[in-house]
User: Fold ATP synthase subunit b from Glossina fuscipes.
Amino acid sequence: MLSRAALLSVQRPLSVLAARKAASSSGERPVRLEQPGKVRLGFIPDEWFQFFYNKTGVTGPYTFGVGLITYLCSKEIYVMEHEYYSGISLAIMAVVAVKKLGPPMAKWADSEIDRIENEWNEGRETELKSLKDSIEAEKKEQWRAEGSLMLMDAKKENVALQLEAAFRERVMNVYNEVKRRLDYQVECRHIERRLSQKHMVNWIVNSVLSSITPQQEKDTLNKCIADLNALAARAK
Assistant:
């Protein structure tokens, strides 16, 4: 069947070209095939009949075939011995096999071809699905990578906030340390001032006390007693 198909594929363009050339030279319209690839008598391609139709008319192929067989038999080119009848038997068996076994075999071959094609298509679909899944996974990974970039930006912002907080804390520590030292200096000045005042007061008191004589102290005491007595008498 494959050799016959290859022969038809090679002979079809030649026969069509010859038919067109004959039609153009004779001015007649070439005979159109009813179905491309059709065979007659079980094994003769229809393109051959078309070639003879364009050359000799519709009865040309049959006249040629009958004349050729008659010539071969009359000239004893083809001797009708026992192999002749064996050939007829083989031809009949071949025709019967082609007619009876051809369709089931063709159906089986078509089913096998369909099965193989389905397996190939299934493998191709599986490969396409796996590639699509890989593409989707790659897109998801890219989306995750973009999320990682956003997370990295957030982490950088958090680090910047932590650095800002640490900077403010250190600034506050410096402020407190400077304030404490300044307060210490102020307190030192206050203490020095209080000590100076106390020393001056003690010095003045001591100077005054040292300047008072015993007689002045005695007179002052007597004066105080007299004043107290006068106040007591006045109170009565």
Notes: The radius of gyration is 67 Å. Residues 1-34 have pLDDT under 50 and may be disordered. The helical segments are 2-26, 46-56, 60-74, 82-211, 214-235.
